[in-house]
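Bug #2210: token dump truncated for Twitching motility protein PilT?
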Amino acid sequence: MNVLIDTSVWIDHFRNGNDVLVNIIELDRAFTHPMVILELACGTPPAPRIKTLNNISFLQSCNQVSLGEVMQFIEHEKLYGLGCGLVDITLLASTLITPSTELWTLDKRLADLAVRFGVAFEPMLH
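Reproduced locally. Full output below:
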């Protein structure tokens, strides 16, 4: 199973380290999305900043949905008013169209939607 890594997981990893994330990367099962990289670019990833962002961009990319598809997804699944924004819903939709992929997020609202759609990644804690 591949895992699309949400921005929240990266930020937590930058602050605290995360062996599960490192393992997923080493197994070449970590996926990224351009919106995650752009969200990270809006913040303060670890120095050297550009190298950190470039390294994440070298991960495999999940399939991407268009903005029109996101709009259809929101309306069809009634995803409005749930506290998730454009990036969240885009990542969820992209996960759904990427075979054998789950979404790993630390955002409770997005995690709840990932569970609802059967694509939530649950890291095994030791």
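Output looks complete on our side. The chain has a mean pLDDT of 97. Marking as cannot-reproduce; reopen if the truncation happens again.
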